[in-house]
Design brief:
Elements (H helix, E strand, L loop, with lengths): L7 H6 L10 H9 L5 H5 L5 E4 L15 E13 L7 E8 L2 E8 L4 H4 L5 E6 L2 E3 L2 E5 L2 E4 L7 E4 L10 H15 L10 H6 L5 H9 L4 H33 L11 H8 L6 H15 L5 E6 L5 H14 L3 E5 L3 H14 L4 E3 L7 E3 L2 E4 L5 H12 L5 E4 L13 E7 L6 H9 L10 E6 L5 H7 L4 E5 L10 E5 L2 H16 L3 E5 L7 H17 L7 E4 L5 H12 L5 E4 L12 E6 L7 H8 L10 E5 L7 H9 L3 H12 L2 H7 L15 H17 L7 H20 L2
Parallel strand pairs: 4-7, 10-17, 10-18, 11-15, 11-16, 14-15, 16-17, 19-24, 20-22, 20-23, 21-22, 23-24
Antiparallel strand pairs: 1-9, 2-3, 2-5, 3-4, 5-8, 6-7, 12-13
Helix pairs in contact: 7-8, 8-23, 8-24, 9-11, 10-11, 20-21
The chain binds adenosine-5'-diphosphate and magnesium ion.
Length: 711
């Protein structure tokens, strides 16, 4: 059918060279920015619009207020500097006045900005020698445009593409698609219910809107499509997993979980109770659980994990907990053993009808005869709960009947490892164990729905009562730094301990270690000369690292100088001080994780964030000073960094979210997720929604390609 409306798949098959004005040279330039097909072109959206009926004039500029003005270039010159930096200045103006623009290290501006060119300038006016100027503003060359609202496309200096060229090509592509129209794959009732405009109008309007309101409606529709595609993938994966795997329908009538909770020396928090209920509901169902538990440092995730594993043990199955490092596995082992010290397991083969619960540790360090015994006991079901590292998923480790798996600190494990542990499931019966993934890196709800959309999500959003909050202090001036060290010395004199975290050096492990060694030396000889100072870094063997940690725990060191290897999970309640050097080099999430190493005991803890006197990282450090709430900090982080980083680490739809924002589009995200469930549950393989299926495949193909071309 030649005249059927065009699908995105159709558009993805049309080479960009068929567009008027795109010859070989332009084609190469476009390829350089990732535009190879008409679909790529049509989804290259304007990054801004200039509303000519409502534009600001030079005369209206206010110091410190970011503004966009349309101006003409009066003159451009390059200013020689004695340093290696370059400087180009341009005078620009309109009928109401003129302003000077200054560009540092952008020598090409001298060529780009031709006298009399019409440009859009976006920046923050600052006062310099009594006059307003803008430093390094965003500049778009718009040429001679007559439309009321002018789209401004992302341009590429390198590829030498201008916004008006792109606008013309887009116009050409849309004109040629006009008679067939661009089809709408969204079921009409969903579209109407959500009051979304149709896709053909949306694509036309996003490029050439008549008003900013129209443009917003178009963006909403196209953003919804982006989110729906991602959700169709995730929800499809989730439903397929549920369909293809038989879980264990755990018996919830047993006593063990209740006895365990009753014997705890504290009442559960409301959040713990809620999450344990959510987990129990999953455990009772025949489909295997696949749930993510997000909970800030100290929110009490371990209790939830143990409660889940006990349900499995009660029914004659086993539980396993996998931690990312040996130190953490050992810590969990010690802690969980303590929690379970008096718990009995029902046992028919025993005179008393019950026996002591058995918890064992399995790491790479357990070898030889001990290991052989342990593996045999695991395989015959004599071990109830196994706690360990990757060693748990190695070849040769077999469980008699693995019923519940907990994976701690999710970001260190990949999807494959989750699957491997799941695969250790109750062998002959071919059932899949229930899986609970725990992470202490909170991400906002909307992001979780997108990044972990194939998992159910539970949140521990409440800390147990009685914690003494950590006092966080930003320090910059030499005097403040001196005071900080004397506070640390005083805490040590009172019998407390301190961490000193060294600057992160991303480019080189070696440099990072060298820096840590240097800081260790200088503190030992200087500020902390009277204390015992230990050193921990990533180039030590895990044996060496453990020795250092063990000594620190045993108070053989007062101070531990460390690289970020202490980031995850280490628990020394007597450590009440943390100094983070060059805090501006760390991300919010990392600072929050690091800070979580203190404040674990009853004594009030402090965290000093040492920052260079510059503008770098101010907002991040301030956010930490202001709040210890991981979810709040995650929101700030998303706000400051945008979704790019988050999405790319998760490798899901990284490039497909061009218009949708995980920060602002909460309503759309929820609507898209609901729509995806509705569509998939009625039509699991998308047989009746062939166009949607085609789009999902396009998305997956692109992800595959990105994944393969990565490093
Ligand atoms: P997380 O793993 O989430 O960082 P943990 O499970 O290690 O936190 O718990 C941190 C500390 O809080 C532990 O010492 C634990 O015994 C304690 N704890 C857990 N739940 C509660 C509660 N409801 N009330 C008081 N203390 C609790
Ligand atoms: Mg923990």
């Amino acid at each position: 059918m030649a005249d059927a409306p065009l699908t995105l798949k159709d558009l993805a098959k049309i080479d960009i060279a068929t567009i008027k004005g795109v010859g070989d040279k332009r084609r190469d330039a476009l390829a350089e920015v990732g535009v190879e097909t008409v679909l790529d072109l049509l989804t290259t959206y304007p990054r801004r619009y200039v509303d000519r009926t409502n534009e600001a004039h030079i005369g209206d500029l206010v110091e410190g207020v970011e503004t966009l003005v349309l101006v003409k270039v009066r003159n451009v010159r390059r200013v020689p500097l004695r340093t290696r930096r370059s400087m180009v200045t341009a005078m620009v103006g309109d009928a109401t006045g003129s302003i000077s623009l200054t560009f540092f290290n952008q020598p090409w501006r001298e060529r780009q900005l031709k006298t009399d060119a019409e440009i859009a300038v976006f920046g923050k006016p600052e006062r310099f020698r009594g006059k307003l100027q803008m430093v390094n503003p965003v500049v778009d060359i718009i040429g001679d445009k007559t439309g009321r609202i002018v789209p401004i496309y992302p341009q590429s200096e390198k590829a030498n593409l201008s916004t008006w060229e792109i606008a013309n090509w887009v116009r050409n592509a849309l004109d040629r698609a006009a008679h067939r129209t661009i089809g709408d794959p969204l079921p009409a009732e969903i579209r109407e219910r959500l009051s979304l405009i149709d896709r053909h109008s949306a694509l036309n309007t996003i490029h050439f809107p008549d008003s900013i309101v129209d443009k917003e409606r178009a963006r909403e529709r196209l953003a919804f499509d982006e989110l729906l595609r991602v959700q169709l993938v995730l929800v499809g994966r989730k439903r397929a997993f549920e369909r293809d795997n038989t879980g264990i329908r755990h018996d919830m009538t047993g006593e063990m979980q209740r006895r365990f909770i009753g014997a705890l020396p504290f009442p559960l928090t409301g959040a713990q109770r809620r999450v344990i209920d959510e987990v129990n509901d999953d455990l009772a169902k025949p489909a295997p659980m696949h749930r993510l538990l997000q909970g800030d440092v100290g929110s009490g995730k371990t209790v939830v994990a143990v409660a889940a594993m006990l349900v499995a043990v009660q029914g004659g199955h086993q539980g396993a907990l996998m931690a990312p490092t040996e130190v953490l596995a050992e810590q969990h082992y010690a802690g969980i053993q303590r929690l379970l010290a008096d718990l009995k397991v029902p046992d028919d083969g025993n005179l008393f009808g019950e026996r002591q619960l058995r918890v064992e540790l399995l790491t790479g360090r357990i070898t030889g005869e001990r290991r052989r015994e342990l593996l045999a006991d695991l395989a015959r079901g004599a071990v109830d709960i196994a706690i360990g590292t990757h060693a748990l998923i190695q070849e040769g480790v077999e469980f008699a009947s693995l019923g519940a798996v907990v994976i701690d600190e999710q970001h260190r494990f990949g999807v494959e490892q989750r699957a491997a542990l799941r695969g250790k499931g109750a062998g002959e019966r071919h059932t899949t164990p229930d899986v609970l993934v725990m992470t202490a890196t909170p991400i906002p709800r909307t992001a979780a729905m997108t990044v972990y959309g194939d998992l159910e999500v539970s949140v521990l959003d409440e800390l147990p009562p009685g914690r003494t909050p950590i006092d966080t202090i930003a320090v910059t001036a030499p005097l403040e730094i001196e005071n900080m060290w004397s506070d640390v010395r005083r805490a040590i004199a009172d019998g407390q301990q301190a961490y000193v975290v060294c600057p992160m050096i991303e480019e080189s492990d070696k440099l990072e270690v060298a820096a840590a060694e240097e800081i260790h030396e200088s503190l030992r000889k200087g500020e902390l000369a009277k204390s015992k100072v230990g050193l921990l870094h990533g180039r030590m063997s895990s044996q060496e690292k453990d020795d250092v940690m063990t000594k620190f725990r045993a108070r053989k060191f007062d101070v531990l100088v460390s690289t970020t290897v202490i980031e995850v999970g280490v628990d020394v309640p007597n450590a009440t001080c943390m100094v983070i050097l060059d805090a501006d080099r760390f991300g919010i999430a990392q600072l929050h994780q690091l800070r979580g190493r203190v404040g674990r005991g009853s004594i009030a803890s402090r965290c000093w964030l040492v920052r260079k006197n510059s503008n770098v990282g101010v907002e991040r450090v301030e956010a930490l000073v202001k709040s210890t709430d991981g979810f709040y900090l995650a929101e700030v982080d998303l706000e400051l960094r945008g979704e790019g980083t988050l999405m790319s680490t998760a490798q899901k739809g990284a490039s497909d979210l061009k218009l949708a924002s995980l920060r602002r589009d909460e309503t759309l995200i929820k609507a898209a997720r609901e729509a995806a469930f509705e569509i998939i549950d009625a039509d699991p393989t998308l047989k009746r929604h062939r166009d949607l299926a085609g789009e999902v495949n396009l998305l997956l193909a692109r992800e595959e390609k990105e994944f393969l071309t990565k490093d």
